[in-house]
Amino acid sequence: MGDPKTHPGPRIPVAVLGATGTVGQRFVRLLADHPWFRLEALAASERSAGQCYRDAVTWVQTQPLDDRVAQMTVRTCEQILEGRHELVFSALGGDVASEVEREFARRRLVVTNASAHRMDADVPLLVPEVNPDHLDLLVAPAAGARLPAGIVANPNCSTIGLVLALKPLADTIGIDRVSVVTMQAVSGAGLPGVSSYQILDNVIPWIPGEEEKLEIETGKILGRLEDARIDPAALAVSAQCNRVPVVDGHTLCVSVGLRAPAQLDEVREAWREFRAEPQALGLPSAPPQPTVYLGDDEPPQARLHRELGKGMAVTIGRLRECPVLDARFVALSHNTLRGAAGGAVLAAELVVARYGR
Amino acid sequence: MGDPKTHPGPRIPVAVLGATGTVGQRFVRLLADHPWFRLEALAASERSAGQCYRDAVTWVQTQPLDDRVAQMTVRTCEQILEGRHELVFSALGGDVASEVEREFARRRLVVTNASAHRMDADVPLLVPEVNPDHLDLLVAPAAGARLPAGIVANPNCSTIGLVLALKPLADTIGIDRVSVVTMQAVSGAGLPGVSSYQILDNVIPWIPGEEEKLEIETGKILGRLEDARIDPAALAVSAQCNRVPVVDGHTLCVSVGLRAPAQLDEVREAWREFRAEPQALGLPSAPPQPTVYLGDDEPPQARLHRELGKGMAVTIGRLRECPVLDARFVALSHNTLRGAAGGAVLAAELVVARYGR
Amino acid sequence: MGDPKTHPGPRIPVAVLGATGTVGQRFVRLLADHPWFRLEALAASERSAGQCYRDAVTWVQTQPLDDRVAQMTVRTCEQILEGRHELVFSALGGDVASEVEREFARRRLVVTNASAHRMDADVPLLVPEVNPDHLDLLVAPAAGARLPAGIVANPNCSTIGLVLALKPLADTIGIDRVSVVTMQAVSGAGLPGVSSYQILDNVIPWIPGEEEKLEIETGKILGRLEDARIDPAALAVSAQCNRVPVVDGHTLCVSVGLRAPAQLDEVREAWREFRAEPQALGLPSAPPQPTVYLGDDEPPQARLHRELGKGMAVTIGRLRECPVLDARFVALSHNTLRGAAGGAVLAAELVVARYGR
Amino acid sequence: MGDPKTHPGPRIPVAVLGATGTVGQRFVRLLADHPWFRLEALAASERSAGQCYRDAVTWVQTQPLDDRVAQMTVRTCEQILEGRHELVFSALGGDVASEVEREFARRRLVVTNASAHRMDADVPLLVPEVNPDHLDLLVAPAAGARLPAGIVANPNCSTIGLVLALKPLADTIGIDRVSVVTMQAVSGAGLPGVSSYQILDNVIPWIPGEEEKLEIETGKILGRLEDARIDPAALAVSAQCNRVPVVDGHTLCVSVGLRAPAQLDEVREAWREFRAEPQALGLPSAPPQPTVYLGDDEPPQARLHRELGKGMAVTIGRLRECPVLDARFVALSHNTLRGAAGGAVLAAELVVARYGR
After folding, report:
1. Residues B184 and B177 sit within 8 Å (Cβ to Cβ)
2. To bridge D31 with a disulfide, which of A324, B356, D39, D126 should be the other Cys (CB 3.0-4.6 Å)?
3. Are C349 and C282 contacting, i.e. CB atoms less than 8 angstroms apart?
């Protein structure tokens, strides 16, 4: 078997739905020079369709827009549906996503960042390092197809950082209770998203729907696949979500109740040792170390650490005992890279490495 | 008995130690036109002594500096010690505060915002609405004196918001566990305090020493006075403290374990009904409602609610059940008003109303 | 003649159009307890009409919403048009404002913050301290009416600060060239206005249409009324406008070319001495000193000085010679108070004091 | 002649003075894997000397600290002086820099970011694309030395962006007046630098000493070298400097008076065509395009464009006519890369390419 990093076949043509939003822009950036995928089509709303991408988008990325992509004509989702891309990335808004994604998923693989289908029984809610086996929910590729059809969903941006930090503990020690308070960046709300008038010199301690997502998604992702269905993990999760005036990077204060008495050393070790299927397969977007433990006196900080592992690592620090539960720590992840477009691209890479060869 | 709001006697001459820092400036503002107190002396470091206050201070308050005070000559603490002010407010830094405050306290009442003596056995750690009876730790005024000598300590800025929110619940239902995550404003770190280069576009999930203070002070304040000593409340407290790019106002995400099963309605009611001795006595700085519950869907926000009750109220919202403990909510308080200078002035008012008449 | 501060007659019933936006909210705040006006009706878009104001508005003011107003039912502009309010404040958006305001102005006085009619020949573009005589463009009140009908326009929020700072110089020394660079707060863009994702950790050196407004409005306001028309001042104005991550307060760096050689002392003196009709009349919203000069080494700062004179003063500092033009300085004004709702209320007070008695 | 990009000889050993500050950290980052230089020694204050660099520094860069450098022992300047590094980068503070740098410069090349010697007659104030010929002020290398001894000074961070934007115009059309207003990032003030309490929700329209630097340095840099001395350019410069809550990137609003009538097209063209000696020599840190013109409707933005050309390009946009001078535009440059450490490294590269071979 060859090294997946040098994907042997020709690059797989892909499309991005919802390409003008902030997550869509991240997809465009990540796919502009991806070794396995070739970005061939962009879809956005009726209003943008027909324009060249450069004109349709309000580009807010720090890296300049790739020239080839800038000149691509934006299409509608309907037009993309007629095309032959085997793989479609979706950054559609929740309301539109539901139907459109199902339509695409009848004959294509859809890797989506939308929340519409995350809790559907036939949809793997995938964090590649955490529950790669959940991909078995997908039906094997049809004859002549390289990839299975169906939907693979990216969890909520905060959930991803949380479960990556929890997974090594769940595997080695066991967790039964999690209390998490998030401090989330504004990029998570997209564009126009959070008004500057509301968030400057402020914390908004409410992100509608977010806490529920964190609480329910965590159980599904850490759940067990049995008889082609997911049995959620038995885990009480309390999430309190806040919006803070930070551009990128969600910071999480986490307390956990452990299933067994454990030394903090074991916990640190679990993070430091953690490697998973994406690392073993050498997937192009996989960070060498998914969970980086900085040190007991070194707090992960959004501006300093969000780009670690090209924005795909979770940075953890300040592990200490908790007077109420068992252990406490701080975790940080990049919400539009690992928490959105980057996570979805890594998910697609995992599917390709498993099936598409 | 007269109405304390119209304090009958002449105004009590007071001094402020550490008058040029941010908390010192708040003291100066609050005392500039206080109905009971007359600001007569300002002390700061050797470096500032001898200058007029206007020149010695980097004024960062939004209200202009009072002209009379601006022209006062800054003195050293030693010089103030020779004076005859019966009441001294201290905004000294921790290292200096310890000895100086004890010196002053031999013959005067010192109300301090410093942390040096907070946990001393003979020092009431006072939140006037929460533990006014702890003032009994003070020895009654000497013959000829209006006020008792000794130290009254203001708790940590975050602790104050927390215990005010907890007190109505502790009284009516009972609490045994508290998990709190704070998002604290930069003004709490004073001047120069937090470098802008470190906090812009960032969250710093560590404030050295802060978590320990919150955890230990809460127990003392909610403790019971027996045989002239404080018996700390039996309460497990877990605090996780974060610095966020907000000017004023500490936001707290709180989960509590209750001693008895309770309806959320009882909790809301407890906050809405809560009034205490400062309200009964009509102290000049007492907010009409110490704990303001906004509503289940209305999150307290630093920029919008920190000035409520002239910065002396704690604003609470988003009460809901907690999957890990029993109930969760958000609380907000102004860290340099209620959490520092304002709290200390209210404490002094309470002492005066009890003894000084 | 009586003291206008104690307006003799009953309070004048007024309505606010566009009451749910950020400027509309400022109107509501200022009119909630105005001594001359009684807020009786609120209009907003179809979507909000029929709701009570509390439900229709996303309140972002730091002072709580007045209870009486909170319970008022929001109406459409059409419904207000049928009412009998002699005076209407408009915070309508530009596109809607044009027609609606003309409609109202046929039988009422409309004081507007919208830009639609600012440059109309029959509309005074009023800064009460600067060009009160421009009110003569209005036709005298009809028989039985207290107030004249027509439109009085509030200039752009940046223009107001600029012309207030320039007026004392124009009167005493003469100005022929002005180069101004603005650093404008996000509240000037309303809600949702500027996305936080675009302005955090950023400066946006472009506010579409703003520079043109500043350049053209300044000439009209400083112009001379002759034969019932305004002759714009002969003044070259160059404006460069920037959005910065500040909540409230526009900061202006200004260079001026003077018509006559002058000492900087004369310039300082001009600002310090400046008083105008609103001060002479003692209008309720008039700041005691319209232009406050802080000092050569004291820069006006948005967070510290925007509330000066209840947000109605312009704060000036750092006067010094300019190597390119003649003199340079920094000016600051509160963009939603003096620069929007407060300015409009003061304008209305001036009309009332002139005609309405 | 070989390609300087593949510098033929062994890497030149270099030292960094003032290595723990923010500019020092940038030096460390840029030199960690520089193709021509090998970082061999770090100096900081007495307080840090003897510690390993990792412990001595408060690392605030987004890229992690290089392991080899992290373990280097910090020394004092005196200790470095005894070493044999031919090239020393200085990020010393102004007060210390003056003497120390002269001491080093007797036998070494010092490339400094400090302001102490910028206006010295024998010191080239170098922007490599603008005045490479000023290097002739240095005395040729002594026998056996590869590099000349002496001081090469990096201009002020704002000056660099300004003169890079002006140079193409000065060369092709001629400039006689410049009016510039800066909006400067907090990183320019170093650590602790600007207190967050003073800059959050604020603009500080004063940076002591900065305006004078911009005004005087611009003339020297654009001046002509004649008879081994610099004749400053005949150019009136007015600078007004502001600190804004931005992490990195100085934004400049510039108006220029031109020596000859010109079409805006010629100005645009001048920027687009501009290449200079560093580009011709292919210096490792030279951006391919030193001045990038974005477009008339595309404003350069700190967060989006500061990293262009690895932080070494100046981004320009919004060229338009000026009603007071002739033309106006916005320019942006990265203040700690191009404006500090990056500029100094590029300067050193230029010296090496000229002499060191």
Report:
1. no
2. D39
3. no
Residue type, C188: G
A176 close to B (CB below 8 A): no
DSSP D233: -
Phi, psi of D71 (to 5 degrees): -95, -5
Quick check: A246 and A204 in contact, CB under 8 A? no
Kindly give the parts of chain D with pLDDT less than 50. Answer: 1-4
**pLDDT bracket for residue C3 (50, 70, 90):** very low
DSSP class of C326? S
CB proximity list for C96: less than 8 A, separation 6 or greater: C18, C77
What whole-number distance in Å separates Cα of residue D347 and Cα of residue D127?
A: 7
Q: Is D327 on the interface with C (CB under 8 A)?
A: no
Nearest CA in chain D to A303: D62
| Contact list, A197 vs chain C (CB under 8 Å) | 22, 60, 186-187, 189-194, 247
Mean pLDDT of B193-214: 97
Q: What is the mean pLDDT of residues B171-185?
A: 97
CA distance B228 to chain D (A): 41
Structure tokens at B196: 């802008």
For residue A83, the 8-state DSSP code is: S
Q: Which residue's entry shows tokens 């020149």? A: B55
What's the CA gap between C242 and D106, in Å, rounded? 46
Please tell me the distance from the alpha carbon of residue A202 to that of residue A196, in angstroms, as a whole number: 10
- Nearest by Cα to C250 from C345, C340, C129, C130: C340
Residues A141-184: tens digit of each pLDDT: 988 888 999 999 999 999 999 999 999 999 999 999 999 999 99
Interface of B with C in 59-78 (CB under 8 A): 59-64
What are residue B224's DSSP bridge partners?
A: B231
The single residue of B157, B241, B305, B334 carrying the catalytic annotation is: B157
8 Å CB contact of D193 and B194: no
Name the packing angle between helices C157-172 and C210-221 (round to 10°): 40
Distance (Å, rounded) from C-alpha A323 to C-alpha B239?
Answer: 9
The pair of three-digit structure tokens given for residue B264, joined into one six-digit string: 């959320």
Paired tokens of C14: 């007024």
Torsion of CA C72, C76, C78, C79, to 10 degrees: -30
Tokens representing residue C168 in the block: 């004392």
Residue A170 DSSP class: H
Whether the pLDDT of residue B2 is over 70: the answer is no
Residue type, B161: G
In order, the DSSP letters of C249-309 are -EEEEEEEEESS---HHHHHHHHHH---HHHHHT-TT--S-SEEE--TT----HHHHTTHH
Residue A93's pLDDT band, with cuts at 50, 70 and 90, is confident
* Element holding D196 (H helix, E strand): helix D196-199
- Beta strands (DSSP E) in chain D are 12-17, 37-43, 74-75, 87-90, 109-112, 150-153, 175-184, 224-226, 229-231, 236-243, 250-258, 291-293, 314-321, 327-333
Q: Is residue B3 very low, low, confident or very high in pLDDT (cuts 50, 70, 90)?
A: very low
Considering the entire predicted model, what is its pTM?
0.96
Does the complex come out with an ipTM higher than 0.90?
A: yes
Q: Backbone phi, then psi, for D245, in 5-degree steps?
A: -75, 70
For B29-88, the pLDDT digits (tens) are 999 999 999 999 999 999 999 999 999 999 988 888 999 999 999 999 999 999 889 999
A220-269 tens-digit pLDDT = 999 999 999 999 999 999 999 999 999 999 999 999 999 998 899 999 99
Joined tokens for residue A290:
């998914």
Concatenating the DSSP letter of every residue in D316-328 gives EEEEEE-SSSSEE
Contact C48, C56 (CB under 8 A): yes
Q: How far apart are the first and last CA of chain B?
A: 10
When pLDDT is averaged across residues A205-210 and rounded to a whole number, the result is 97
